[in-house]
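Objective 1.3, modelling of assemblies. Example input:
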Amino acid sequence: MKLHPMIAALRKHKAGVVLIALQIALTLAIVCNAIFIIGQRISRVNRPTGLDESNLFLVSQQWVGAPSADSADGVAKLDAMQKEDLVALRNLPSVASVAPINSLPLLNSSWIGSVSLKPDAKFSDKAGNARTAYYFTDEQAMSTLGVKLVAGRWFNAGDVQHQGFRDNPPHPVVIVTKAMADKLFPAGDAVGKAVYADGSSSPSTIVGVVARLQVPATGSWVNDFAWNATLIPTRLNSNGSRYAVRAKPGQLEAAMKAVAPTLYRVNPLRVLDDDSVKSFADIRAKAYRADVGMAILMGVICLVLLSVTAAGIVGLTSFWVGQRHRQIGVRRALGARKVDILHYFQLENLLIAGSGALIGIGLALALNLWLMRHYEMDRLPLPYTLIGVLAVLVLGQCAVFVPARRASNVPPVTATRAV
Amino acid sequence: MFAYYLDLAWRSLKRTPILAGLMVLAIALGIGASITMLTVLRNLSGNPLPGRSEVLFHPQVDPRPADLPGAKEEPPDDLTYLDAVNLYQLGIAPRRAVMSSNWLPVRKDAPDSPLAMFSDRATTADFFAMFGVPFVYGSAWSAQDDANHAQVVVLSRAMNQKLFGGENSVGKTLVIATKTFRVAGVVDDWNPQPHFYDLNGGAYGKGEQMYLPFFTWLDLPQDYGYGPMQCWGNDPNAGTHDPKAKQCTWAQFWVQLDTPAQVADYRAALNQYSAQQHQLGRYQRAPDVRLRGLLDWLDAKHVIPVTVRMQTWIAFGVLLICLVNTVGLMVAKFLRKSGEIGVRRALGASRRAVFTQCLVEAGVIGVAGGLLGLPLAWLGLWMVRQQPVSFAASAHFEPSMLGAALALAVLSALAAGVWPALRASSVAPALQVKSL
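Predicted structure (tokens):
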């Protein structure tokens, strides 16, 4: 089939052609960016934290009337209370292991600092400096969190200290994530090297490197250091505490239920409410609620736009079929097969949708630039544009099929009738 | 004549129900989307305290060091403890309130009752009168209670329901952070949106659970946590959650100023105070004060979430695409009637009459689209409320949007109809009549 007569025919009804092409272009512009937003949110939600998330839960509790962490005496008492809690939880039959910890990935409660290669570093120094989130925990954290050690050794009981949460004593040993080790020591020889935390003058020796561990915050402000975590073998003492608990396989619910009565038996003067015992699945769901909501909303908008556009194509093509009833009859009478008529309308639609898509790619990129400037979007990668183009082309073909088949069913005898 | 055109439009639409339905549906979808987002935008940018917003002002002073790296031009939103106390004692505003948000463990005053954490606002007596907080039972505490560090508490209706089953609890006692507090009053559901007086935790969200006197709260241990602090410098206390730290801002402060003269006087007093602190060597920067009215303050803080603005643009994008779609369908619709139009023109109808008739038809489609768009907007708002965002609860339908939805629908349908109507009215009568 030659394109020339088709283009000549299209020029007869420029208005409709331009409108369909324009509509397809606008739809493509929005749909491309919406699919991109959906894709970004999905990849955010699916990134692994580095933890073994099943059977893991977090206990956050607060003592009432506890001594202040500002005096050495108070810190010692708070630590004794925390150790009592740890013993009680570790003795639960449904519990595999427990580690005190100040936060967990996705919890959005962080202790952020910066670790440097030199002592007394200033925060403004860029070189040899890595922003990081600290996890204060103990020797049981590896099995509790399920993180994977890739170099060096894990903490042993002798490494573990305790401190008031406002104090800043030296921390002789630390474990860092691989992302962080690679940033500070690109040669890959981080184990055994000394680093200095938060402009401190006393060194911390890196004893081990874990494969992956996400920082607690999920906002876009941590994008630069989302995998830079530092583990410190220290129990933090304040009037509240958090415990990461790994339940034995299949006993998550039993372990979670047992926590409140056990801790109340140790010391009733504390606050444990509905939010105090949370499975990691809940922490994950809460952290990514807004992302999932945005992805669903964008999905709905895509669907609405695509159906409106499809309806527009059906409407206009039906009108054209009606208008060209007689011409179709003449073509059939002159020997065109049904499938020729069908193909004619399909190819015509492909032509219009294709030119609309070309304009649409330009609009999509422009919209993306505008979103990047005003709403912290990233650059639209090519695959998303191609997916969008493919989507509108397929949509056009689906929408044109019904009216085109009606056209192909016009009997040749129409040619002989007066209109 | 208009009635006749209406009749013609109705007949014409009935003849092509599918095409007409598609046009109405397209307009309805576009209107539904844009009215949903307009309503959300309107809800979010509304005046949180109509009638009182004109007399409420937010003073800011700048206590930061001269060479603080990365410091913005704008003075901090909140005050340091020292400035909060000094400005509180500067008695020239008719009403003033210093405040902060915090969390405290609370239990009923009965043995073995369980403890639970509640969020509370530590503030001073004028808070209630100044912001017009309605009381169900009892009343606010007095300025004398503030001065005496009295252990009194004002509960929200929800918290009174939880702890006392909703009865009049005035005079009863509660144990807050191991101290005994007497209930002075219970306030009705009061939760202005945006949450103008303290934007630190986001501008929208849940209301306060209880209120304590500010200076009484300072006597309690602060370990249970309180609103965000901004600190600077090498003060050993900075960042260690000591509310009295010299180099940390965390307290909100509001004043009521009834006349422009009072506003001018207060601004002068703020400048004078800053100059005095500068002379004393406490402030390193030259006096830099702000005294914004409530609505200016909300403007300056850009309280409307970025995602809402983006979604509003997207909604109008949807409306635009729906309109382009409608234009295409209308061209098809009107040109299909070319024969009829040709006859009318041959019988003496002017171009103008044909044009008007087509526009009336577009208007009818617009009205129908608007009517169908309203339930869609209602559905859209329901979807917004299901979203896990802090402003979800404030997305509710407003009667004033009914008119706006219909007007927007008719206007957009007419705009979409102009060009197709022009094309229809330029049909050459002779050609059409010949082919009949």
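The first helix of chain A runs from residue 3 to 10.
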